[in-house]
TrEMBL record, chain A:
GO molecular function per UniProt: NADH dehydrogenase (quinone) (non-electrogenic) activity; NADH dehydrogenase (ubiquinone) activity; quinone binding
Family classification: Belongs to the complex I subunit 2 family.
Organism, as annotated: Melghirimyces thermohalophilus
Protein name per the record: NADH-quinone oxidoreductase subunit N
EC primary class: translocase
InterPro entries: NADH-Q_OxRdtase_suN/2 (IPR010096), ND/Mrp_TM (IPR001750)
Gene: nuoN
GO cellular component: plasma membrane
GO biological process per UniProt: ATP synthesis coupled electron transport
Catalyzed reactions: a quinone + NADH + 5 H(+)(in) = a quinol + NAD(+) + 4 H(+)(out)
Functional note: NDH-1 shuttles electrons from NADH, via FMN and iron-sulfur (Fe-S) centers, to quinones in the respiratory chain. The immediate electron acceptor for the enzyme in this species is believed to be a menaquinone. Couples the redox reaction to proton translocation (for every two electrons transferred, four hydrogen ions are translocated across the cytoplasmic membrane), and thus conserves the redox energy in a proton gradient.
Automatic annotation (TrEMBL), chain B:
PANTHER family membership: NADH-UBIQUINONE OXIDOREDUCTASE CHAIN 4L, NADH-UBIQUINONE OXIDOREDUCTASE SUBUNIT ND4L
A single BP term in Gene Ontology: ATP synthesis coupled electron transport
GO MF term (any one): NADH dehydrogenase (quinone) (non-electrogenic) activity
E.C. designation(s): 7.1.1.-
Reactions it catalyzes: a quinone + NADH + 5 H(+)(in) = a quinol + NAD(+) + 4 H(+)(out)
Encoding gene, per UniProt annotation: nuoK
Summary of subunit composition and partner proteins: NDH-1 is composed of 14 different subunits. Subunits NuoA, H, J, K, L, M, N constitute the membrane sector of the complex.
Organism this protein belongs to: Melghirimyces thermohalophilus
InterPro entries xrefs: NADH_UbQ_OxRdtase_chain4L/K, NUOK/Mnh_C1-like
Stated name of the protein: NADH-quinone oxidoreductase subunit K
Function noted in UniProt: NDH-1 shuttles electrons from NADH, via FMN and iron-sulfur (Fe-S) centers, to quinones in the respiratory chain. The immediate electron acceptor for the enzyme in this species is believed to be a menaquinone. Couples the redox reaction to proton translocation (for every two electrons transferred, four hydrogen ions are translocated across the cytoplasmic membrane), and thus conserves the redox energy in a proton gradient.
Protein's cellular compartments: Cell membrane; Membrane
Keywords: Cell membrane, Membrane, NAD, Quinone, Translocase, Transmembrane, Transmembrane helix, Transport
Length: 503, 102
């Protein structure tokens, strides 16, 4: 039975529709408000929309997978969990940056908010598309909004320059992804990810082996760009440094989570047949492992000699991208989805928390040099204590979220018998202690340049507390989250939905 | 499969020229052009495949319409960012955009 526009159950798309409506509404309201007026209202509406979308997405958890719009849009547990991560990240960033954006981008406050929502919408489309066209449109919506966000402080040279580097590098990576996609289409005649898997398998067996691999590696190159993993990480330090801090945290958390959902969806949805066919073990897994190892080594060693905290965090996020690639590279391990998603959640809380403290400190001292953290324990004991927890968690020390995140990834890698990557991970983690503890040393053992207190705005304080609670909760009771993730229907991610027609 | 190879070769050449330009050109506007060349190389592939692919059908042309639109949006954003940068720096030489470093 052919299904038409209104035959679909549109409620599955409710989270996206809420965000879309909010972004459209806010752009109109922003035009109607008088210039230079108070834009606080827009912030609250956007926050309400994000929370509403999150509630709807959370209620749908556990429902069977459903595909709408001729199987191009797919809502399964994989997509819902990723959507919740993206929504949580964006909500916390919005809440934490209310005061910051008043000061940073007076003339662009409205744009900041609805571009953030547009980028979020792109990320959400990305997580639940089952079609190359939808995937590409979602990816570009996320990317284009991020380019503008990176340059939103348009009077400042460093911000412009960051946006420029981002738009050129991002454009090149999009071109690589699209070029790879064109070969997938050429070999399969379809843009559906799951149909493409069957036909790629046939094409692979009938002599088009090089083209199948070419398409995969072209896309992989672009994905590595988007996830900021080495050796395609060159843009990350510059863009993270030049963009406003809330935007940087958006790129580090939401953008990266969306990129990982893209990598997982395409590799597992379309190219998993290579596991049986052979080249996965010979080519794909080694390539992913090399990217992961290179990210860990380059990220952690380059971060050692940074004197600007945002640049340091950029290299640290490169290293974390490396950790998160390990489960996919060692696909045969015991807990592929659980360990990746656990790490993403842990990464969300600790990175957002660290960036929020960084934002507060930067706001007070006017720059983000490591030295501006000197004596923070006396200027703001709460911020210093929270930052210590976040950094300890990023370093992966026990009883924090980061420790269990790394622990599960290690278990996964060891059950897949990929011992050398586990060793690289352990060694680079130890290296990372040096720069994370450098910040802690600065906060506790260096005298402050002046004795002024660092005031924490209410929104930022709430974000710091939520991130602190998340980081500690995931560290003390990892089993809760793991059980919760274990209940999800991950395996449906790997196969198409059969029963959408004629139900 | 014979006719498609010439189109694929054209696509590959355009893609390589674009990539070379992005990596070596010093004029920011030319860099943007080169990014567009890379995106259009993929479009040529898609249209060629929709006529001569293993399973030829119309989907490729529809895909091309989407990517052309997106490439236009990307160019608009790129040029807008370049304008802002030019106002602050008064140059379009890419190697002068070097204020960010570690």
């Amino acid at each position: 039975m052919e299904k038409y526009f209104l035959d679909y159950d549109w409620t599955v798309m409710a989270p996206e529709l809420i965000i879309l409506a909010a972004a459209a509404l806010l752009s109109v309201i922003d035009l109607l408000l008088k210039e230079g007026g108070n834009r606080r209202l827009l912030g609250w509406i956007s926050l309400a929309a994000v929370i509403g979308a999150g509630v709807v997405a959370a209620q749908q958890l556990g429902d069977p997978a459903y595909e709408i719009l001729s199987d191009t849009y797919r809502v399964d547990d994989f997509a819902r969990v990723f959507k919740l991560i993206l929504l949580a990240g964006t909500g916390l960033i919005l809440l934490g940056s209310f005061r910051e954006m008043d000061r940073e981008g007076k003339e662009a406050r409205g744009e900041y908010i609805y571009l953030l929502l547009a980028a979020l919408l792109g990320g959400m489309m990305l997580t639940s598309s089952a079609d190359l066209i939808t995937l590409f449109v979602g990816l570009e919506l996320l990317s284009l909004a991020s380019y503008i966000l990176a340059g939103i402080r348009r009077k400042r040279t460093d911000s412009n320059e960051a946006a420029w580097k981002y738009v050129v590098m991002g454009g090149v990576s999009s071109a690589f992804i699209l070029y790879g996609m064109s070969f997938v289409y050429g070999l399969t005649g379809t843009t559906n990810l799951y149909t493409a898997q069957q036909r790629l398998f046939e094409a692979y067996n009938s002599g088009y082996e090089p083209f199948v691999l070419l398409s995969l590696f072209l896309m992989l190159l672009g994905f590595a760009f988007k996830a900021a993993s080495a050796p395609f990480h060159m843009w990350a330090p510059d863009v993270y440094q030049g963009a406003a801090t809330p935007v940087t945290s958006f790129l580090a958390v939401v953008s990266k989570a969306a990129a990982f959902s893209l990598i997982l969806r395409v590799l597992l949805g379309t190219y998993l047949f290579l596991l049986q066919a052979g080249p996965w073990q010979e080519l794909v897994a080694p390539a992913l492992l090399v990217i992961a190892a290179a990210s860990m080594v380059i990220g952690n060693t380059a971060a050692l000699r940074q004197t600007r905290t945002k640049r340091m965090m950029a290299y640290s996020s490169v290293a974390h991208a490396g950790y998160m690639l390990v489960p996919l590279a060692a696909v045969a391990g015991a807990m592929l989805f659980e360990s990746t998603i656990y790490y993403l959640i842990a990464y969300l809380f600790m990175t957002l928390g660290a960036f929020t403290v960084l934002m507060v400190v930067e706001r007070e001292t006017g720059n983000e040099h490591l030295a501006s953290f000197a004596g923070l324990s006396r200027r703001s004991p709460l911020a210093a204590a929270a930052m210590t927890v976040f950094l300890v968690s990023l370093a992966g020390i026990p009883i924090t979220a980061g420790f269990f995140g790394k622990f599960y990834i290690l278990i996964h890698a060891v059950t897949a018998r990929e011992f050398w990557i586990a060793a690289v991970m352990l060694v680079t983690t130890v290296v990372s202690y040096f720069y994370y503890f450098g910040v802690i040393r600065m906060m506790y053992f260096r005298p402050p340049s002046d004795g002024k207190k660092v005031p924490i705005p209410a929104g930022a304080a709430v974000v710091i507390l939520i991130s602190l609670a998340g980081t500690l909760l995931l560290g003390f009771l990892p089993q809760w989250t793991l059980d919760f993730l274990g209940q999800m229907d991950w395996m449906s991610t790997l196969s198409p939905v059969r029963d959408t027609l004629g139900q | 499969m014979m006719p498609v190879t010439s189109y694929l070769a054209l696509g590959a050449i355009l893609f390589s020229v674009g990539l070379y330009g992005v990596l070596t050109k010093r004029n920011a506007v030319v860099v943007l052009f080169c990014v567009e060349l890379m995106l259009n190389a993929a479009n040529i592939n898609l249209v060629a495949f929709s006529k001569y692919g293993l399973y030829s059908n119309q989907t490729g042309q529809v895909f091309t319409l989407f990517t052309i639109t997106i490439a236009a949006a990307e160019a608009a954003v790129g040029v807008a960012i370049l304008f802002a940068l030019y106002r602050n720096q008064n140059t379009v030489k890419v190697d002068r955009y070097n204020s960010l470093n570690g």
